[in-house]
Specification:
This protein folds into 2 domains: about 1-110, Beta-Lactamase, CATH 3.30.450.20; about 155-345, Nucleotide cyclase, GGDEF domain (Alpha-Beta Plaits), CATH 3.30.70.1230. Helix content is about 40%, strand content about 30%. The chain has helices at about 1-10, 15-30, 110-145, 145-150, 175-185, 185-205, 230-255, 290-300, 310-315, 345, and strands at about 30-35, 40-45, 80-90, 90-100, 105-110, 165-175, 210-215, 220-225, 265-280, 285-290, 305-310, 325-330, 335-345. Helix 3 crosses helix 4 and helix 6 runs antiparallel to helix 7 (about 230-255).
């Protein structure tokens, strides 16, 4: 072992050192100028000067006449290096200045190849940053900036195989949209849908909700996945109220413009659900599955425009008492269910 270590510490054989030096010399095509000590007049010219200058630098002249980039930088006070200087179009050069005892030296080394690679890498990096920004803006639009931030930081702990968690699920849908869709031009339908979707989605994202899916003229959201200062049902209910308030404001504006008004109904239910990433490795999406999810969907389909329908578990879990009308509804596939109705128009809050 010691013998092998001793051999490994030997200096590089001269034949290899010469070859490496030769390769470096050919690669960088060095040229040099010897200058008067403490001055800027050219004493000698050597190397591949024609690679850097259109005409041979004249002896006895100021070096700045041959290389304008050095104007004002001489005479030398200390060694310095100028990296990736573009002397001619498409050619980049490192300029190294060295102080010697009797004279000063300028060494030119072509680094065009390295600079070109760096610029390509920089462009790729910029493109990736641009794509990342576009991707994040797209995600922000659909799932909210808080979800994107937490996902990037590893703050979402949802496992691919699914995990159980108590959450609140909110469904919202535009009332009367089907006949409106059939009676209007497609462009008008899209513009109207986008207006109402803004009213429906922004309040959800503002209350720590996650958009599970957008279903044409409606949406499903879950609360209780992201951290919040409030309980999941309180966040869901506040989001529901804000949705109805935003829709009311939009309808008032549309009424002034002589445009058709549409209403929105909201259904909220709470309970244990399995959260997970559904799909294949090609395409995956977050989803929540549980009995209360179906109940929330049924409540929404029964909610008149301007109303929020809550199941009993949600109503009892609210931290702040609200003025609701209890009633019994026969929900499709579920049966008689105790629900609580909150009227936006009645409270106007």
């Amino acid at each position: 072992m010691s013998e092998r270590l001793h051999h490994s510490c030997h200096a590089m054989p001269e034949i290899l050192a010469k070859r490496l030096t030769l390769n470096a010399t050919q690669r960088f095509q060095p040229a040099w100028l010897q200058l008067t000590k403490g001055g800027s007049d050219i004493l000698t010219v050597g190397g591949a000067w024609q690679h850097y200058f259109d005409v041979s630098p004249r002896l006895g002249t100021d070096v700045s006449e041959a290389c304008e980039v050095l104007l004002g930088m001489l005479p030398l006070v200390d060694d310095f290096e100028l990296s990736q200087i573009q002397l001619v179009d498409g050619q980049y050069t490192d300029v190294i200045a060295l102080c010697d005892h009797d004279s000063d030296w300028l060494l030119f080394c072509d680094v065009s190849e390295e600079t070109e690679k760096f610029q390509k890498y920089q462009q790729i990096s910029n493109d990736l940053l641009l794509l990342q920004g576009q991707h994040q803006r797209t995600l922000n639009r659909y799932v909210g900036s808080e979800v994107v931030r937490r996902d990037a930081e590893g703050g979402l702990s949802i496992k691919a195989k699914g995990e159980r968690r108590v959450i609140s699920t909110l469904f919202t849908d535009i009332r009367g949209f089907t006949p409106f869709n059939e009676s209007q031009d497609a462009q008008v339908v899209i513009e109207t849908l986008n207006e109402y979707m803004t009213c429906m989605l922004d309040p959800i994202l503002n209350q720590a909700g996650m958009i599970d899916k957008i279903t044409g003229d409606g949406a499903m959201a879950v609360f209780g996945v992201l951290d919040s200062e409030h309980g999941c049902i309180d966040d869901a209910f506040v989001a529901g109220k804000q949705i109805l308030k935003a829709v009311q404001t939009l309808n008032e504006q549309r009424q002034k413009q002589g445009l058709e008004q549409l209403g929105v109904g909201v259904g909220i239910a709470s309970g244990e659900a399995v959260l997970g990433m559904l799909g294949t490795h090609h395409r995956r999406c977050f989803t929540a599955i549980g009995p209360h999810v179906n109940r929330a969907a049924r409540l929404e389909s029964n909610a008149p425009a301007g109303d929020i329908l809550l199941d009993r578990d949600s109503y009892l879990a609210l931290h702040q008492p609200i003025d609701c009308l209890p009633m019994s509804l026969n929900l499709k596939g579920i049966g008689d269910t105790c629900v609580y109705v909150w009227h936006h128009k009645k409270t106007n809050t």
